[in-house]
Amino acid sequence: MANIIEVEDLRYTYRDGTEALKGLSLTIPQGAKVALLGPNGAGKSTLLLHFNGLNLAQEGMVNVLGQEVREENARWVRGEVGLVFQDPDDQVFSSTVWEDVAFGPGNQGLHGEELAARVEKALEAVGMEAFRDKPPHHLSYGQKKRVAIAGVLAMNPRVIILDEPVAYLDPKGKDTLFEILSNLHSQGTTVIIATHDVDLAAEWADRIIIIKGGQTLAQGDTSLLADQQVVREAELRFPVVTQIFRLLPELGLPHQPRTIAEAVGLIRAIGKGEVTGQGLV
Amino acid sequence: MEHIFSGFIKHSPLGRIDARVKTIVALGFVVITATMQSHLALLAALLLMVAVAVVARLSVRVFFKRLAWLIPFAGVMVVVFPFVIPGTPLGQMDAGLFTLTATAEGLEKAILLLLRVLNGVLALTVLTTTTKFKDLLEALNHLKVPTIFTQLMEFTVRYFFVLGDEYKRMQTARKARGFEAGSVFSRKTYQALGELVAVLFMRSYERGDRVFLAMLARGYGGHNHCCGHCRIQRADLYWGAAVMVLPVGLKILELGGYLWPISLK
Ligand SMILES: Nc1ncnc2c1ncn2[C@@H]1O[C@H](COP(=O)(O)OP(=O)(O)OP(=O)(O)O)[C@@H](O)[C@H]1O
Ligand SMILES: [Mg+2]
């Protein structure tokens, strides 16, 4: 699979001298479901701003769809890579929900029926159709978050990035969001989320990238989340499922499970007596 | 916070008319009526605009709300004119120490101003309650109004809310920790308010930065996209012509002097 985003030795220093990224490299394969993890201040948000050309590489290189992101093609990149901001108050500002969602596709030059269809579809996807004429500043935080997501969905990007998408969403809203993301993913969209929720990362992602102190600590599949060394260094914790099975060393499992489905499979196997102290037989 | 363009009429029959045509008609109407001299012509134009407003389903309440903004300016002048413009005395009013004399000329000027203001406000209210803000900006862009003006309008409106919301959040957070604006004379109150304003400014500035970034992220490029495909329809033009025919006609008559007898009446 080709890489849709490649970052090489990226450095970024804020105006006040904070070195947020210090030679970071990573690759994101096309069509992946990526979870970007790392402690507070690791540089996640700063990195994400590079993916759609809002921050430009001060040193090193960011490649999107095989093209180096530069001042000249930044606008093109923003059409291909949609970014949902961490704080919806930064993103949602129009006078009505409808107009806010229409902002992005409007900038892409859509009009009339076509625009309306896109907006309706996006609003429906996040379950906010009933609020279309409301001013966004009267909405609850979670509702604003949904509007912010709809605003990016409506642009039909090839890559969609969500910075901490589940904070403040109610459990149902979380499920809905991941249904939407799965749908998008099955249509070929690459999805990247920055999150602190390891359980969610373990359940949902097929690729894990962990950064710390402005550098990549590890990238790979979800087994990273059960790797003691990585987890300790990244100041993460194990997914709950892994925590449970780590307390059962007598099972002698070669790998710790990470998702609920894996755990259920294991428990069934134990019930049938297929797991002995030597692991699976 | 109340929406600046509150009173937007959702399913107004005028909502379907091309924003460019509406903008030109509204601005043209304002310019023409603002330079009209004859009371009768102005009254006729006003009646026409009232008819348009009725078709547009504009509510009387919204109109008067908009009109209220002008009271400090035009309202005061309308009230003062009859008494300060010299001419034939009409009547007197005893105001204790001095006597106010209203003049016919003054009254006439006042009525003229009032009619012009009513015409202008009504036309612009119809425009802004039947056109989405974004469409209006787009129309202005299309009509070659420099981007700097439309951008200024756009950001004023957007940041107005940003600032207001920030202020509300800070107020609430303060109240939650027991702050209450004390007496008007207390030094503490002023100190607290001063801090509030300073921090509000800083925070809005930073948030404004992030809001702008978020706009860029969604492809904002400094100008509103022009509608390539939504061409002005014939129906739009008919509507525009129908509304403009009366004021333009009146204006021509007035310029030609045919209306002098009426206006002198
Ligand atoms: N506008 C800014 N000016 C100066 N420094 C900044 C700015 N934004 C972020 N930083 C600094 O850059 C570093 C990385 O911040 P960033 O927001 O990318 O972290 P993050 O991984 O997204 O953290 P979180 O998990 O809390 O969202 C931090 O040390 C932060 O203090
Ligand atoms: Mg962040």
Can you give keywords for this protein?
heterodimer, A: 281 residues, alpha/beta, Rossmann fold, 2 domains, four-stranded antiparallel sheet, 12 strands, B: 265 residues, mainly alpha, two-stranded antiparallel ribbon, 9 helices, 2 strands, 70% helix, flat, binds adenosine-5'-triphosphate, binds magnesium ion
Set out the fold topology.
The complex is a heterodimer of chains A (281) and B (265).
Chain A: E1 3-13, E2 19-29, E3 33-37, H1 44-51, E4 59-64, E5 67-68, H2 74-80, E6 81-84, H3 88-91, H4 97-107, H5 112-125, H6 141-153, E7 159-163, H7 171-186, E8 190-194, H8 198-204, E9 207-212, E10 215-220, H9 228-233, H10 240-246, H11 260-271, E11 275-276, E12 279-280
Parallel strand pairs in A: 3-8, 3-9, 6-7, 7-8
Antiparallel strand pairs in A: 1-2, 1-4, 4-5, 9-10, 11-12
Helix pairs in contact in A: 4-5, 4-6, 5-6
Chain B: H1 19-35, H2 39-56, H3 60-84, E1 89-95, E2 98-103, H4 104-130, H5 133-142, H6 147-176, H7 187-217, H8 234-256, H9 260-264
Antiparallel strand pairs in B: 1-2
Helix pairs in contact in B: 1-4, 1-8, 2-4, 2-8, 3-4, 5-6, 6-7
Largest sheet of chain A: 6 strands, mixed
Radius of gyration of chain A: 20 Å
CATH domain topology of the largest domain in chain A = Rossmann fold
Count every helix of chain A, treating DSSP H or I runs of 4 or more residues as helices.
Answer: 11
Number of helices of chain B: 9
Radius of gyration of chain B: 24 Å
